[in-house]
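Need tokens for this chain, all 185 residues.
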Amino acid sequence: MEQVTRIISENLKKIRKERDLTLQSLADLTGVSKSMLGEIERGATNPTITVLWKIAKGLKMPFSRLITQGREPVMLVKREQMEPVVEGSGYDVFSLFQFDEDTKFEVFMEEIQPGARYTAEVHTGNVEEHVLVGQGKLKLTLGDEEYLLLEGEAMKFTGERSHAYENPGNQVARIFFILHYGDMI
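Here are the structure tokens for all 185 residues:
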């Protein structure tokens, strides 16, 4: 996690300076306190996924821009080299491929323990989520509607609705997410 914390720290500083923002103006845009933003930039804290989503939404940019390093022409992602970018209560989120300016998408994998639930931040700016179940089962809640996806099944939806992911099964659910940012960026 130290490497991820360092990457987030460097990326946030770089983005803030590129946009000529003070810590206070960044706090005003994102709803994250000035002191928390300072701690993140210094690498003194590992921010929660909720804080990272607030920052990404406030800056109108993809989540992965905060958590991943620069783009390479070929990238091989090996399981044994993956570190979670977010460790929640019963779930881990891994960034597989960072946001691509040309295609306007990014790819994540989430592993959800049996019985665990993750409530995602609502997205703005025409974000579309593509969800694929690679292993196990997924109960996907969109607003007041619930869907059960089994291994090998997929679904897509627009992210401006509240949404949550829950593992109703008895084995780890491995879920892949492709987030397409449409006209947000």
